[in-house]
């Protein structure tokens, strides 16, 4: 039997090829697990199954997807429990990659730059309370599954996990991605969401914006010169939500962009899909 290759066959194979390419492109633009300190795990189970991580229930969307975030110094051995509606359960083990972080040691720093004055401590505590409340939301949105756009243009001037020692004493690690640029440069929403905090003058972070992207994932934008949105407002991916600034305790204009899974601080660079 002789197989005849005709135009119909060619058109069919072309269609299948294009469909495959489109499928691969779609998959490539979907956020994938980054099993590393500061990263995250994206899993999928049956929609009726429950996920338990460190004794807490994890939100599962209508398709069975969920996310678990890992902090800067997270244990390399991680696990979670999958429970079915029949009372059955299984444990899933994960192994994270260890990271090395940049450490800078600075001597001769004046005390006023290391310890804030007593008169502002109440203000700092109130700022911290507002930020903590804004990161508590566990909404059904899953906007982050598509990955994040870069929120600003400019060189990276600071990275996640780096830490400074002032006069031999360790300071808090840096948990954001710093992007340098001019005051007034537009800041984009890296993914759709709802604004949970919009404050123009916080002690450390100056103009501060927090967007809830769903399931505990939130973006924080610090040192802003102008806010274009307000708390409770819905924003779209790529929308200009603020302007870069040098407010708060900074040495120059830049954006400090941070990503949280509830109170777990993650590396924003790992969630970028450009």
Oligomer: single chain
Low-confidence sequence ranges: 1-7, 12-28
* Count of domain modules: 2
Task: Give a short account of the largest sheet.
Answer: 8 strands, antiparallel
* Morphology: globular
Task: Kindly provide the radius of gyration, computed on alpha-carbon positions and rounded to a whole number of angstroms.
Answer: 22 Å
| Global structural class | alpha+beta
Question: How helix-rich are the residues, as a percent range?
Answer: 10-25%
What's the pLDDT, averaged over the residues?
88
Name the CATH architecture of the largest domain: Distorted Sandwich
Instruction: Kindly provide the name of the CATH class of the largest domain.
Output: Mainly Beta
**What is the first-to-last residue Cα distance?**
50 Å
CATH homology superfamily name of the largest domain: Glucose Permease (Domain IIA)
Task: Tell me the number of helical segments per DSSP (H or I, 4 or more residues long).
Answer: 3
- Listing every helix as H and every strand as E from the N terminus to the C terminus, the arrangement reads HEEEEEEEHHEEEEEEEEEEEEE
For the secondary structure, the number of strands is 20
Strand content: 35-45%
As for the CATH topology of the largest domain, it is Glucose Permease (Domain IIA)
Keywords:
alpha+beta, disordered N terminus, 4-stranded antiparallel β-sheet, 15% helix, single chain, Immunoglobulin-like, Glucose Permease (Domain IIA), 8-stranded antiparallel β-sheet, 274 residues, 2 domains, globular
How would you describe what is shown here?
The protein is α+β, with helices and mostly antiparallel strands and 274 residues long. The chain has two domains: 40-95, Immunoglobulin-like (Sandwich), CATH 2.60.40; 103-271, Glucose Permease (Domain IIA) (Distorted Sandwich), CATH 2.70.70. Helix content is 15%, strand content 35%. Strands 8, 11, 13, 14, 15, 17, 19 and 20 form an eight-stranded antiparallel beta sheet that branches. The chain has a four-stranded antiparallel beta sheet with strand order 3-2-5-6, with no helix packed on it. A three-stranded mixed beta sheet has the order 7-9-10, with no helix packed on it.
């Amino acid at each position: 039997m002789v197989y005849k290759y005709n135009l119909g066959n060619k058109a069919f194979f072309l269609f299948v090829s294009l469909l495959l390419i489109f499928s691969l492109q779609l998959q490539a633009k979907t956020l994938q697990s980054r099993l590393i300190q500061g990263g995250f795990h994206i899993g999928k189970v049956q929609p009726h199954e429950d996920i338990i991580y460190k004794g807490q229930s994890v939100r599962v969307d209508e398709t069975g997807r969920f996310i678990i975030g890992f902090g800067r110094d997270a244990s390399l051995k991680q696990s979670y429990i999958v429970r079915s509606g029949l009372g059955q359960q299984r444990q899933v083990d994960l192994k994270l990659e260890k990271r090395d972080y940049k450490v800078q040691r600075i001597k001769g720093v004046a005390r006023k730059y290391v310890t804030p004055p007593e008169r502002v401590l109440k203000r700092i505590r109130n700022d911290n309370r507002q930020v903590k409340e804004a990161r508590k939301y566990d909404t059904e949105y899953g906007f982050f599954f598509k990955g994040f756009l870069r929120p600003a243009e400019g060189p990276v001037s600071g990275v996640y996990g780096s830490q400074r020692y002032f006069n031999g004493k360790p300071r808090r690690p840096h948990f954001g991605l710093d992007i340098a640029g001019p005051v007034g440069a537009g800041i984009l929403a890296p993914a759709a969401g709802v604004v949970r905090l919009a404050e123009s003058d916080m002690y450390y972070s100056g103009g501060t914006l927090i967007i809830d992207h769903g399931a505990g994932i939130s973006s924080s934008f610090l040192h802003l010169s102008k806010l274009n949105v307000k708390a409770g407002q819905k924003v779209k991916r790529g929308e200009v939500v603020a302007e870069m600034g040098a407010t708060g305790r900074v040495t120059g204009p830049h954006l400090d962009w941070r990503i949280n899974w509830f109170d777990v601080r993650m590396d924003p660079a790992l969630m970028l899909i450009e």
